[in-house]
Amino acid sequence: MTDRAPQPVDRQLPTEESRDLLALVREIAQREIRPRAAEEEDSGRFPREVFTLLSEAGLLGLPYDGSFGGGEQPYEVYLQVLEELAAARLTVGLGVSVHSLACHGLAGYGSKEQQSAHLPAMLGGGLLGAYCLSEPAAGSDAASLTTKAVRDGDEWVITGTKAWITHGGVADFYTVLARTGAPGPKGITAFLVPGDMEGLTAAVPEKKMGMKGSPTAQLHFDGVRVPDSRRIGEEGQGFTIALAALDAGRLGIAACAVGVAQAALDEAVTYALDRKQFGHPIADFQGLRFMLADMATKIEAGRALYLAAARLRDAGKPFSRQAAMAKLFCTDAAMAVTTDAVQILGGYGYTADFPVERLMREAKVLQIVEGTNQIQRMVIARHLAGPETR
Q: What's residue 2's pLDDT?
């Protein structure tokens, strides 16, 4: 193999602290995550100890308030951390993004009492979260969810099934969206549900084409009783909370997608410099060089797009349209780049001896989760032309 190792991404970071943070993340990724990624993904092993380590290092609460154990980092920095983690192993990068999504409701809409009681453990106490919006018959049409929460005195009784839950069955807490009122988005309320509640069970995890180390499972709520003190926000405010979380979460998916694409490009460049045909490294052939150039351009464009959206969020400006654009572009780019990486490696790219086939399988799910890319196009179009009139 060539002695040329992939160079770290040249990042424009706002402070010396953030530069030190990214250096720490790279060190953890290289030492604790990347070496075991292929083996553990192949066996379907969930790396819970890695998330414990990330929590101890303060990396599970980066964009949140320091008074509750968060890292007080801007999204511009937090997303680049996700990118580095996802480049090492998507199960970890996406897992951190999902955990942050699960904390978003309480951090943004909870009372001071709720935040003081729960956020320190959620952000830096070793806990792992999950986000429960989708259902077997309510995916893209999330406002049609049917899981019910019925008030009984000072408690709510939750009954129903949630689907496609990342960390389903292994999370310590779930942010759950349930119907407390009439049909439609105004009848939905958010709850913070501990993972060990009586009546809460997880199905056998889904058998997936990629991200086999990240459990994705249905959750069954059979009369789960939750005190009213764990209701997040007002009754009927849940869908607003969910949409706000998804805007931020889509930026997390975009950053993860760029990380996967960067990892695939690094593998392709290294292979092209090492592999010889017709007496020359295949990196000498113009057709392949142009492929590498196009891959690198897609990655740089995606990174710039998600960072531009992050800076809008950090400035307190609207960013929903830009978040949808970033999620759409970056995940489509990741699918294209990983596919080209497999092509560059040829037959070797189709084997599990090299990571690009795994990266290609993993890239596909990023076009689906947290709003399919068709939904992102609908969101963007509504910002441009208003709601559909049909």
A: 44
Catalytic residue from among 27, 84, 370, 388: 370
φ, ψ of residue 185 to 5 degrees: the values are -65, -25
- CA 77 from chain centre, in angstroms, equals 15
- Compute the distance between CA of residue 370 and CA of residue 326 in angstroms, rounded to an integer: 13
Cα 232 from chain centre: 22
Look up 370 and say whether it is catalytic.
yes
Tell me the backbone φ, ψ of residue 229, rounded to 5 degrees.
Answer: -65, -10
Q: Extract the residue ranges of the chain whose pLDDT is less than 50.
A: 1-3
Strand, helix or coil for residue 158: strand
The pLDDT score that the predictor gives to residue 5 is: 56
Q: pTM above 0.85?
A: yes
Contact criterion met (CB below 8 Å) for 146 and 136: no
Please choose, from the candidates 160, 219, 218, 220, the residue with its C-alpha nearest in 3D space to the C-alpha of residue 189. 160
DSSP, res 252: H
- The 10s digit of each residue's pLDDT in 157-194 is 999 999 999 999 999 999 999 999 999 999 999 999 99
Taking the CA of residue 86 as centre, how many other CA atoms within 13 Å lie in the half-sphere pointing to its CB?
30
